[in-house]
Amino acid sequence: MARAGLTAERLTIAGAELADEVGLDQVTMSQLARRLGVKDASLYTHVRSLEDLRGRIALLAADEKTIRIAEATTGRAGKDALVAFANAWREYAHRHPGRYTATQTPIQIDPELAAKAPGPRRAVELTYGMLRGYGLAEPDLTDAVRLLRSTFHGFVALEAAGGFTHQRSPQQSWVRALDALHTLLEHWPASREGDS
């Protein structure tokens, strides 16, 4: 019989908290069971496997991150929107490193759960909407989305790994990187015939 109060949602939140503390790759079902004061087997009433739990954490994190970005960018356009978007992304990665990792890791997610989760879909809408403010259309939109994701994720991943040891602060470099991205987006190069 399942322990009263134990639900898939509660397991997901507890797993997300654990991931932030120890790292997503270090989360195990045994650790989670100990944290909740239950036997390992009782977890499987609510989640199928560790991969299922990680998928649920990824969806939770995508929802949370998207909400923060949406709140930060509401009513903003151009550089103000870009900076607010980027800062919300980076702040989420700093505050929730395990959850953030789940949003950037290939995880097999239950298609039924994924279809119900608004976060990933909303993230795409927010990103494309912000970039349309720069007058971009396809295929440039997709290229710009990939550039932003690569820049934001690359920066926060290097920062988390202690990769910025120069005396200049990472914050100063972050501000300049956003200045450079804004300039690039305003002067996006025209697509060439036969780009492949």
Structural class comes to mainly alpha
Radius of gyration: 19 Å
% residues in beta strands: under 5%
How many strand segments? 0
Any low-confidence stretches, pLDDT <50, length ≥5?
none
Q: Main β-sheet: number of strands, strand sense, barrel status? A: none
Oligomer: single chain
The DSSP helix count reads 10
Arithmetic mean pLDDT: 92
Q: Give the overall silhouette.
A: globular
List keywords for this structure.
0% strand, 10 helices, 196 residues, mainly alpha, globular
Short note summarizing the structure:
This protein has 196 residues and is mostly helical. The chain contains 10 helices and no strands.
Folded structure, characterized:
The chain is mostly helical. Helices cover 69% and strands 0% of the residues. The protein has 10 helices and no strands. α5 packs antiparallel against α10. The protein starts with 7 loop residues before the first helix and ends in a 10-residue tail after the last helix.
Write the layout of secondary structure elements.
Elements lengths: L7 H15 L6 H8 L3 H4 L6 H24 L4 H18 L1 H7 L7 H6 L1 H15 L7 H21 L9 H17 L10
Helix pairs in contact: 1-4, 1-6, 4-5, 4-6, 4-8, 5-6, 5-9, 5-10, 8-9, 9-10
